[in-house]
Amino acid sequence: TDAGLLAEPDVSIVSGLRDMVVFEGDDVTFRCQVSHDNARDVEWKLQDVALQNNEMNEISVEKGKIHTLTLRKVTEQDIGTVAFRVGPHTSTAELTVKGEGEDM
Questions:
Q1: Are 21 and 98 in contact (CB under 8 A)?
Q2: Digit-coded pLDDT (tens) for 23-58
Q3: C-alpha 53: how far from chain center
Q4: Which of the listed residues 15, 21, 34, 88 has the most CB atoms within 10 Å of its CB?
Q5: Where is the Ig-like domain (predicted)?
Q6: Which pLDDT tens digit goes with each residue over 73-101?
Q7: What is the CATH number of the domain that holds 31?
Q8: Which residues contact 63 (CB under 8 A, 6 or more apart)?
């Protein structure tokens, strides 16, 4: 049968998110590499809120397998856990945002 052609491949996370520390007002990019191109069942979250692709959150895919999330001009309100989910697999990382006067 042709059923195998229609089945979604089991996409897994090859290389997960890394914690990031940035200054307030900077952009920050999170990257997660998955095992197959064109994974469809994917979702990005910040603080458990699903993110949409808009002027503040740029969601894209590089080279088919590297899913990226760029948060524009982050503020201390954005501090928290970033999560990338593909199918049943999730990778998380912490975003830390420093105020202007703080040391890294």
A1: yes
A2: 999 999 999 999 999 898 999 999 999 999 999 999
A3: 11
A4: 34
A5: 9-96
A6: 999 999 999 999 999 999 999 999 999 77
A7: 2.60.40.10
A8: none
What is the number of other CB atoms lying within 10 angstroms of the CB of residue 95? Answer: 20
Domain carrying residue 40 = 13-97
Q: Which of 47, 31, 27, 36 is nearest to 8 (CA)?
A: 36
Q: Which two tokens stand for residue 71?
A: 């948060």
Write the DSSP string, 24-51.
TT--EEEEEEESSTT--SEEEEETTEEP
Give the number of other Cβ atoms within 10 Å of residue 85's Cβ.
Answer: 17
pTM above 0.70, yes or no: yes
Is 103 domain-assigned? no
Q: Which of 92, 42, 98, 101 is nearest to 66 (CA)?
A: 42
Q: Name the nearest CA neighbour of 43 among 80, 82, 6, 97.
A: 82
User: 83 burial class (0-12, 13-18, 19+ CB within 10 angstroms)?
Assistant: buried
